[in-house]
Amino acid sequence: MTKGLKLTDILVTIVIAIAFGIVYILWGSVYYALKPIGLHADQFMYGMWFIAANVAFFIIRKPGVALLAEIAAASGEFLLGSPWGLTVLLYGVVQGLFAELVFMAFKYKRFHISVAILSAIAACLGSVLMDFAYGEIGDLVAWNLTLFMIARFLGSILFAGVCAYYLVKVLEATGVTNLVRPASSKDYAELDQK
Amino acid sequence: MQLDFSSKETWLHRINPSLKLFVLIMLCIIVLLVHNLLFMMNFTVIVLILFLCFTGQPTKRILLLFIPFFVVFLSTSSSLIFFGQGNTTWFKWGLIHITEESFFRGLLVGFRALLFAILGLTFALTTRPVYLFYSLMQQVKLNPKYAYSFMAALRLIPIMLEEFQTIQNAMRVRGVVRQTGIRSVFLKMKAYSIPMLSGSIRRAHRIAVAMEAKRFSDTRNRTYYYEIGFSKYDIVFILYFVTLLLAGYYGAIKGV
């Protein structure tokens, strides 16, 4: 098995990511539709913006895929004209990096739902850090900030963690994941003469 | 990006895309470091001039594109204005508490978001993605594997949209009853996302196999269909920002 990503891996990752880039743009209007409710109800929807990293990683299962996917999704969103402009690129890099770190901590060998949730939480943490640097949410009053955090983390777990995991589970049933996943030791064992 | 709407070409289109991206990222970093509201407003005007006059889009479209900016500005500044910390109270009603400090900080953050948005959209409107990735390969030495994958993926967007329509029509033809409620949202998400994702993955895989079959390789000394270089417009672009930003900063300190 060669190290690094092959052309197939990169192309599939980027295509998945660009597809989610379109979703990301459309999600902006959902986000703003909830904004008038106030009290950070919109933050609950924020988790959708971390989903590309998880979906791509759980499909392809190789190092670097999560980071690449989140960056590609962000640049797709940026090139198509997101109302947030260049910010999405900066956020994308950080979120992808944080998600990638979780997968790295499990040595890219664990694909349980808990890993998906952990990486969603990590990506969310990355976005919150960026918000502190950029949006100065640190200046919000304490109760308001708490509400903001709870909404965002819960949303991340639901969308980027649970939803992403089950999305890939259903995709597995279509058989398409066999095309792009590296052969596991189980596959080799099946080839052995009994 | 010009997917399906055309526009006039202006000098902004002729700037080297990598250089344009680099300058914009630099500008964004400067924006992050600015804490002077007056300078921020001058900065916004400087960028706004480029967006309004030199993107080559019809006025009507520019005004239409401006609506989301306005929403971003309002939403970003409002939560800080209404719920921010501060000592000098201006207005208090229930949970809403507007103070002098929170008001100005809200405005500052609002302008920051606005600037990011205008810079990003100006770039998107005046840059053809194909040129951008060719330029990134030639000037920044981006690995061709990534550049060509991006270009192929961007080409697939219209096909994805078409597929979306096909699924919609297919459901209508087969008489799928419109449901309501939370459950229907999940059902709908599944009905669209699974076929579209699996179709896209299969297509991407086929493209990669075809590219490798045609001996696509990673060698750096390859030839390019588009040769992207530098021109006098690059110097104009840099000088525009350097002179006007210095003027804007000077003006802000003098209180204009």
Automatic annotation (TrEMBL), chain A:
Keyword terms of this UniProt record: Membrane, Transmembrane, Transmembrane helix
Entry keyword Transmembrane helix: yes
Residues that span the membrane, as ranges: 12-34, 46-64, 84-106, 113-134, 140-168
InterPro entries: ABC_thiamin-permease_prd (IPR017195)
Superkingdom of origin: Bacteria
Protein name as annotated: Thiamine ABC transporter permease
TrEMBL record, chain B:
GO cellular component: plasma membrane
Superkingdom to which the source organism belongs: Bacteria
Keywords assigned by UniProt, alphabetized: Membrane, Transmembrane, Transmembrane helix
Its membrane topology: Multi-pass membrane protein
Pfam families associated with the record: CbiQ
Spans traversing the lipid bilayer: 21-50, 62-83, 103-126, 235-253
Compartments, as annotated in UniProt: Membrane
Main subcellular location: membrane
PANTHER family: ABC TRANSPORTER PERMEASE (PTHR33514:SF1), PROTEIN ABCI12, CHLOROPLASTIC (PTHR33514)
Protein name: ABC transporter permease
